[in-house]
Specification:
alpha+beta; Arc Repressor Mutant, subunit A; 3 helices; 2 strands
Length: 89
């Protein structure tokens, strides 16, 4: 953590707290090396986040696409009705 803390504009305790949150979230792992703790990315963490976001956005984007398709259909029907009324004039 020392080398990491040197690079950041926050205190060592703040870096430690952030690393704990990342570890609890399953995004990093750590291991003891003597008196130091070595942190590294947990490869399964980003995969799980990506899967969640893909599901979340997939569902919401599909709903958005359906709503836009329905709106386009309503707009097209409205234009046809307007064109027919102009032709009758």
């Amino acid at each position: 953590m020392g080398k990491l803390a040197e690079l950041l504009p926050i205190s060592r305790p703040a870096v430690s707290q952030h690393l704990k949150v990342l570890k609890d979230a399953g995004l990093v792992r750590d291991r003891a090396e003597g008196t130091r703790r070595m942190y590294f990315l947990d490869p399964s963490g980003p995969v799980e986040i990506r899967a969640y976001l893909d599901r979340y956005w997939g569902e919401h984007l599909a709903a958005f696409a359906e709503a836009m398709s329905e709106q386009a259909m309503r707009d097209a029907v409205g234009r046809r009705g307007s064109d027919q009324r102009q032709d009758e004039s």
